[in-house]
Amino acid sequence: MSRFTRFDAPAFAKWLRGAGIQRTVNHIQIHHTWRPRKTDYTGEATIRGMRDYHVNTNGWQDIAQHLSIAPDGGIWDGRSFELNPAGISNHNAGGVCIEIIGDFDDGEEVLEGAQLAAVTAAVRSLMDVFSLNESAIVFHNEHSGKTCPGSGITKPWFLQQLKEVDDITTQQTYTVTDFPDVPDDFYGAASVQAVKDLGLIKGHADGRFGFGEEITREELAVILHRFMQIAE
């Protein structure tokens, strides 16, 4: 079963800065999911459902998008950033695909609140890391007959939201650990950093600790072996 990581805006910004992405990125695609709607969202199960549909029904190699923006402001990872998205036919090379969960056509759902703050923060982080400007932001409907990302969202309005987003959102950093997925208010955050400083744990290759994940017997053996080496 695929596992996905949910970031808040500061954690995503920190992860992105340290991800070391090698692929050339020259534009950011903005989409809405249409289905699922905001009211259909149930957390990671919704992200897994989209991946299953994209792989098993559409025949794609993975979930189409690199990021999914949840109604509660969560930023979910998806397709590897080293792969082009499956977002806009014949316009995917060099793109990062963002899917905002919801149906934002006129008279349907509204992009607002935590979700709006999350997508603008994510876009600004991407613009910063890949040295892009507003001309690199592409709406799906610019290259297709679809309304995506929704007829209720105009590009001038979206660009204005980017200008107004609070800079603090993307400048915050976690100060307790070096891992972007370990919240500062987690009671064991200092202990996580302590064992990292000792060299007992190193985290995943993408910079995450793996917060909330179960440890395997193999991983435990590696940690115990490192501890024995330190203790000698």
TrEMBL record:
A Pfam entry, by short name: SLH
Molecular function GO terms recorded: N-acetylmuramoyl-L-alanine amidase activity; zinc ion binding
Keyword Kinase: no
Record InterPro entries: Amidase/PGRP_sf (IPR036505), Amidase_domain (IPR002502), PGRP (IPR015510), PGRP_domain_met/bac (IPR006619), SLH_dom (IPR001119)
GO biological process, one term: peptidoglycan catabolic process
Domain SLH residues, every copy: 175-232
Keywords linked to the UniProt accession: Signal
Family: Belongs to the N-acetylmuramoyl-L-alanine amidase 2 family.
Protein name per UniProt: Autolysin
Organism name: Salsuginibacillus halophilus
